[in-house]
Amino acid sequence: MLKKILIANRGEIAVRIVRACAEMNIRSVAVYTEADRHALHVKRADEAHFVGEDPLAGYLDPRQLVNLAVQTGCDAIHPGYGFLSENADFARICEARGIRFIGPCAEVIEKMGDKTAARASMIAAGVPVTPGSEGNLADLDEALQVAGEIGYPVMLKATSGGGGRGIRRCDSPEELRSQFPRVISEATKAFGSADVFLEKCIVDPRHIEVQVLADGQANVIHLYERDCSIQRRNQKLIEIAPSPQITPEQRQYLGELAVRAAKAVNYENAGTVEFLVTGHEIYFMEMNTRVQVEHTISEQITGVDIVQEQIRIASGLPLRYRQEDISFRGYALQFRINAEDPKNNFLPSFGRITRYYAPGGPGVRTDTAIYTGYTIPPYYDSMCLKLIVWALTWEEALNRGSRALSDMRVQGVKTTARYYQEILQDVDFRSGEFTTSFVPDHPQLLDYSEKRNPNELALAIAAALAAHAGV
Ligand code: ADP
Ligand code: ADP
Ligand code: MG
C-alpha cells in the first residue's frame, strides 16, 4: 500500500483526498500558493508546502510538484480534477521519477483527453458515437462541408476541451462561420491547442455518465450511472444517481458500454464514460480520465469509496469488488453550490464568508473547503461547496434536498443555493424527466425573491404573534 501521497490540488477535492488518506493511514502532503495560505486543505493535510506567490503557477508546474513529492518522501501523487489531472506529461514525469501517478498511464490520458482520438478508439471498439468529423477539421471549408453532410444543428468542439468550455452549437452555415474562429481562439487560450472538430448536435439530450473502476489486473467494473442533465452552458449544476429517467435495460446496456470502452483502451484506475441519451439512442461523448466532481453520488448509492479505490489500484492491489458485488440503493443528488449570483448572469461572487453553517441530519453530506471567516480567492473555480443528499426514494431525496438547502447557511457571498430550491419545487424537475435544456427552458425559476426562506418567515411570524399575545 502507498504510504505518503502528495495532493496536487486545492479546495474541496484536496480535502476529500486528505480524508481518504487519513482513513487508510496514509500520510498526506498538501501544496499551496500565496492565495491559499489560509485554505482548509493546508490545515487538514499532515504536511503542507508552499509552491509560490502566483495563485496558479505552483499548481500547474509538473516538475516542481514531482520534485517536491520526491523531496518529501512521497510514493505517489493524487492530481484530483482540473489542474494537471488530465496532463499526460505530468503522469510521464511522475513515472520517470518513481512517483506513482494516481490515475491511468500517460498514453491512455493522451488518447482519451483528445476527443477525436477517443472517438476513433470507441468506433474501433464498437461503442456508438455521435456522427461527426473524422478527426480534427483542417479549416472552415472542411467544417462547412462536414456540417452539410451530417446536417444542422451541429456542435463545434475543442478537441482538448473540458469543463464545458470550447463548445458551440451552430444552427446554420452562417453561425458556423462566425463561431469557427471563436472556438479556435477559446480553445487556444484555455487548452493550448487550436484543434477543433464537429459532431451532430443531439437536440434535447440527457447527459448520462457511467463511473468505472479498473485495476492493473484487467478487472473492470462500473458503479452505475449519474444523470447530469441539469446544466447551464454545458456545465453541470445538479447531478443525480441513479438516473430517474432510464429503463433497467438502458442501465444495463450503458454499464456494458462503459466497461467495453474502458477495456478497449486498457484503462486503469477510476474513470467516467459520458454519454448522450435521447429516446432509445445512446451515444458516447467523452471519457474523463480522473476522479469527477460528482463521484460523491455514486459513493452514496453504492457505498464504494471511489477515492480509496483509486489509491488501492495505484498501490497495485486488485479491485475489492466484482460486478455482482455492486448494488445501488435509493437516490442521491449533488448540488454544486457556486459562489455566483444567479440573478446577475451567474457572475462570480468572491469574498469573505461571514458565516457558514453546514447542514446535517440523516442522509446529508457536505464536501467543501470553506469555513466561517474564510475568504474565497478570485483566482479559482467558483464552486465552493458540494451538498449531497441521499434517501430511499426519489421524492424523499427531493424533500431532503430542500430541507438541507434551507438548513445550510453560506453568508457573505452570493450562491446558487436559493436557485436550487426553486428547481427542487419545479414540477418538471420533480417528475424526474428532464434534458440538458431544462435550465434555459425554465428562466422563471430565476425570479425568486431574495427574502428569507419559508422556515425563517414562519419563525418570524410565530415570534410576532407571541409578542402580540404578550407571552
Ligand atoms: P466533472 O467532469 O468532474 O463534472 P467539470 O467538467 O465540472 O468536472 O470540471 C471540473 C474542473 O476541472 C473545473 O474546474 C474545470 O474547469 C476543470 N477542467 C475540466 N476539464 C479541463 C480541461 N480539459 N482543461 C482544463 N481544466 C479542465
Ligand atoms: P466537456 O469536456 O467540457 O465536459 P463534453 O463533450 O462532455 O465537454 O460536453 C459537455 C456538455 O455539452 C454535455 O454534457 C452536453 O450537455 C453538451 N453537449 C456536448 N456534445 C453535445 C452534442 N453532440 N449534442 C448535444 N449536446 C452536447
Ligand atoms: Mg464532459
CATH architecture of the largest domain: 2-Layer Sandwich
- Into which percentage range does the β-strand content fall? 15-25%
Rg (C-alpha, Å)? 22 Å
- Count of all domains: 3
CATH class descriptor of the largest domain? Alpha Beta
* Largest sheet descriptor: 8 strands, antiparallel
Which assembly state applies to the chains in this document?
A: single chain
Question: How would you name the CATH homologous superfamily of the largest domain?
Answer: ATP-grasp fold, B domain
Function: This protein is a component of the acetyl coenzyme A carboxylase complex; first, biotin carboxylase catalyzes the carboxylation of the carrier protein and then the transcarboxylase transfers the carboxyl group to form malonyl-CoA.
Domain ATP-grasp: 119-315
Organism: Pseudohongiella spirulinae
GO molecular function: ATP binding; biotin carboxylase activity; metal ion binding
Question: What can you tell me about this protein's structure?
Answer:
Residues 119-315 form the ATP-grasp domain. Acetyl-CoA carboxylase is a heterohexamer of biotin carboxyl carrier protein, biotin carboxylase and the two subunits of carboxyl transferase in a 2:2 complex. By secondary structure, this protein is of the alpha+beta class. It folds into 3 domains: 4-102, Rossmann fold, CATH 3.40.50; 131-200, ATP-grasp fold, A domain (Dna Ligase, domain 1, 2-Layer Sandwich), CATH 3.30.1490; 206-446, 2-Layer Sandwich (D-amino Acid Aminotransferase, Chain A, domain 1), CATH 3.30.470.20. Helix content is 35%, strand content 25%. It has helices spanning 11-23, 40-44, 62-71, 88-96, 106-113, 115-125, 140-150, 173-191, 248-264, 295-302, 306-314, 394-407, 417-425, 427-430, 438-441, 454-469, and strands spanning 4-7, 27-32, 47-50, 76-78, 100-101, 154-158, 167-170, 196-200, 206-214, 220-232, 235-241, 269-278, 281-288, 331-338, 340-341, 347-348, 351-352, 355-357, 364-368, 375-376, 383-391, 409-411. Helix 4 packs antiparallel against helix 5 and helix 12 runs antiparallel to helix 13. The longest helix has 19 residues, at 173-191. It is globular. The termini are far apart. Magnesium ion (MG) is lined by residues 274, 286. One adenosine-5'-diphosphate is lined by residues 81-82, 86, 160-164, 191, 236, 288, 292-294, 381.
